[in-house]
Amino acid sequence: METLTVQRVIAAPIADVFDWCATTTHYTRTPFVLKARLARPGRDAPYGVGAVRLHTWVIGWFRERITAYHPPYDFDYTVERSIPPARHEQGRMTFTEVPGGTLVAWTTAFQVPLPLVGGALTRALAKPVVAHVFGAILDAADTALTGAPATRR
């Protein structure tokens, strides 16, 4: 199992950054996310607990369920199904007010389950690709909210 965290400071209010990142249809503003839709709304908010999100990336298809939702500070999700299949323990986005804006930390734990090479393949190939896509999504959030690229941490 590999854990990956991508962080950015976005020069916008925490509530705006949280809302943008929770609404995954925005992710299609990158060339890496081809489709994103809300398949089932959450209990207390469209992207709240119980919401089901469907994403088609250039590397695969993902069905995610929101498991925790505390606006504007954090939300958790799990990938229930994916093509190609992957093991996923948890995804989490946290939002913290910092001087100059909002620090976003996006963490996920996953593994590509291939016998004998799964861990090596995840480290060598999948982890850098997922990090790049997460970073591109956060950069798109910053551009949408401020018109400028995000600050990397």
TrEMBL record:
Transmembrane segments: none annotated. It comes from the Bacteria. This is SRPBCC family protein.
